[in-house]
């Protein structure tokens, strides 16, 4: 019986790992899956021995606050490698941590597959060389990721990005407006302040201030605030009430909001890529500890933080970073777009190219097949 140990350290990684392993289980129900993850992996039937999501952070320096706990988790997984001897280890995102686990797998002579590997294509290409030296198989989700890891000597399979299989809204904008009880003539702007309280507290007040200024200029605007999973609606409502702007908080409808909106104002992260897949223009906002920003921008020389811009290779959508993220700058960009549909159309055309670069869908199934192949079960049943 195939034994797979999984290591997923954040909510997004937990979700992506679960989607793949669910397909593995569908083909081979007897496969044993255990390790580190959270709710999605538990629900698909994995034995979760560590749930690290409560200590997940954004930024480099911030992660040091929980360093001792991270090392405890790593020690536990190394212990599981010795005691339960998995046939294969599935490493999902959580780069700094999973690089150390990949090294342990190499030392133990256990195969490892890395899905959402370290972003060596953005900075620090030595990471790709390290993963190659460990013999870790790379399931690449971005084309530039494939190039960098192959150049480093790793064995790479380009599986494409799984969001292409997940991000879909069949309803038209007019139907969605009816569902949200919005007047047909209203123009919608979506606000996506993030999934962590730190992000929300630094981004949402400024977003709402921008909304207030825009409403004075354009009376037909309607603002929808997306409540991320795990974020209490009442918590977001407290920000809205303080701002005195009329904005509706919507739960579990991210993609519908994106499809309804003329454009969105969003925290940097996966949301920006989801919006790109739906061809929705966006203003990307980012604020982190200055130490983390300095490391990213000046030491690792990251030109962009937004995934659509990174994938396209130049700026497709504006990024307002650190002190540049001010309500007045958001308003300036938003008014340009609201007054000139051609500007939005040009962005949409470039977002189509971003989508094309992500592959043609089927990433989850291809990654599941890769795991089965590495585990010796592909085409055996």
UniProtKB/TrEMBL annotation:
Family annotation (InterPro entries): Glyco_trans_19
GO biological processes: lipid A biosynthetic process
Its EC number(s): 2.4.1.182
Reactions performed catalytically: a lipid X + a UDP-2-N,3-O-bis[(3R)-3-hydroxyacyl]-alpha-D-glucosamine = a lipid A disaccharide + UDP + H(+)
Domain of life: Bacteria
Keyword annotations: Glycosyltransferase, Lipid A biosynthesis, Lipid biosynthesis, Lipid metabolism, Transferase
GO cellular component, one term: membrane
A Pfam match: LpxB
GO MF annotation, one: phospholipid binding
NCBIfam families per record: lpxB (TIGR00215)
Function: Condensation of UDP-2,3-diacylglucosamine and 2,3-diacylglucosamine-1-phosphate to form lipid A disaccharide, a precursor of lipid A, a phosphorylated glycolipid that anchors the lipopolysaccharide to the outer membrane of the cell.
UniProt name for this protein: Lipid-A-disaccharide synthase
């Amino acid at each position: 019986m195939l034994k797979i140990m999984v290591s997923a350290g954040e909510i997004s990684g937990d979700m992506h790992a679960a989607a793949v392993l669910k397909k593995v289980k569908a083909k081979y129900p007897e496969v044993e899956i255990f390790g580190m993850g959270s709710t999605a992996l538990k629900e698909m039937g994995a034995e979760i021995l560590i749930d690290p999501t409560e200590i997940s952070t954004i930024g480099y320096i911030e992660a040091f606050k929980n360093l001792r706990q991270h090392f405890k988790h790593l020690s536990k997984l190394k212990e599981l490698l010795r005691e339960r001897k998995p046939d294969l280890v599935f490493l999902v995102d959580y780069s700094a941590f999973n690089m150390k686990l990949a090294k342990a797998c190499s030392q133990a002579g256990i195969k490892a597959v890395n899905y959402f590997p370290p972003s060596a294509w953005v900075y620090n290409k030595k990471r790709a060389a390290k993963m190659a030296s460990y013999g870790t198989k790379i399931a690449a989700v971005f084309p530039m990721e494939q190039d960098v890891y192959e150049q480093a000597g790793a064995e790479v399979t380009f599986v494409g990005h799984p969001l292409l299989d997940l991000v879909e809204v069949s309803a038209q904008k007019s139907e969605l407006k009816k569902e949200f009880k919005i007047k047909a003539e209203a123009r919608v702007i979506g606000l996506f302040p993030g999934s962590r309280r730190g992000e929300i507290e630094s981004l949402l007040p400024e977003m709402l201030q921008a909304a207030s200024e825009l409403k004075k200029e354009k009376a037909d605007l309607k603002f929808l605030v997306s409540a991320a999973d795990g974020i209490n609606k009442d918590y977001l409502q407290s920000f809205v009430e303080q701002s005195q702007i009329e904005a509706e908080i919507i739960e579990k409808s991210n993609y519908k909001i994106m499809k309804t909106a003329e454009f969105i104002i969003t925290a940097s992260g996966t949301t920006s890529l989801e919006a790109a897949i739906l061809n929705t223009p966006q203003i990307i906002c980012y604020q982190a500890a200055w130490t983390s920003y300095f490391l990213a921008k000046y030491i690792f020389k990251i030109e962009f933080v937004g995934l659509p811009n990174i994938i396209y290779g130049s700026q497709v959508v504006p990024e307002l970073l650190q002190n540049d993220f001010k309500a007045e700058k958001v308003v300036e960009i938003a008014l340009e777009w609201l007054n000139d549909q051609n500007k939005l159309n040009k962005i949409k055309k470039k977002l189509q190219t971003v989508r094309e670069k992500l592959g043609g869908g089927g990433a989850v199934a291809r990654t599941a097949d890769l795991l089965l192949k590495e585990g010796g079960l592909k085409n055996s049943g």
